[in-house]
Design brief:
Layout lengths: L3 E7 L5 H10 L3 E3 L3 H10 L5 H4 L1 H21 L4 E5 L2 H11 L5 H9 L4 E5 L16 H17 L5 E2 L5 H10 L3
Parallel strand pairs: 1-3, 1-4, 2-3, 4-5
Helix pairs in contact: 1-8, 4-5, 5-6, 5-7
Length: about 180
């Protein structure tokens, strides 16, 4: 049985979580985005935006979590595992803020290879900021560009998922998995 580890990525507020929830409802094995958990935990500890105050610490926590998700996906019984954001997302966000990172971040991207990567484009009609999503829509578009550049750097051919209903987007993903 060939294992497929599939990433759903895109800038903030593009519908990734909604697609993952739709896939879960259909019975697929999915791993959620972890940055919201890290951000909310930091806020409980009195740090409003850990990504902004200590970006390297925040990014290392995300990297550790995403590497763990990758390893867990390899061990899954299911032949397909969908992940809300992959390891290269960490680097793309570091590029967005113009920060540097240790060599092991780069090596982690080489070591964790995904079968396919689907990218969701910026979609202003559904974009909402909240307590864990500090970026505005213009910043979300810039992050999207960094994501595309970063994944391309590691040899991925991104498949852009068109704007549409959740069902249409999931159907599009499955037509590209065959």
């Amino acid at each position: 049985m060939k294992k497929e580890i599939i990433v759903i990525t895109g800038g903030p507020g593009t519908g990734k979580t909604t697609i993952i929830e739709g896939l879960i409802e259909k019975g697929f094995t999915c791993y959620p985005e972890i940055s919201r958990e890290v951000t909310l935990e930091a806020q409980r500890q009195g740090i409003d935006q850990l990504f902004l105050t200590e970006p390297l610490l925040f990014s290392q926590m995300l990297l550790d979590g995403r590497l763990k998700q990758y390893q867990n996906a390899i061990q899954e019984e299911s032949s397909q595992v969908f992940i809300d954001r992959g390891v290269p997302d960490v680097l793309a966000y570091m590029h967005f803020i113009g920060d540097t990172y240790p060599e092991h971040f780069d090596q982690s991207c080489h070591d964790s290879k995904y079968t396919k990567v689907f990218v969701l484009p910026p979609w202003e009609d559904i974009y909402v900021s909240d307590q864990a999503r500090y970026e505005n829509f213009e910043q979300a578009k810039i992050i999207y560009d960094h994501l595309k550049e970063t994944y391309a750097k590691y040899g991925y051919e991104l498949i852009e998922v068109p704007i549409g209903t959740v069902s249409e987007r999931i159907d599009f993903i499955f037509t590209h998995l065959k």
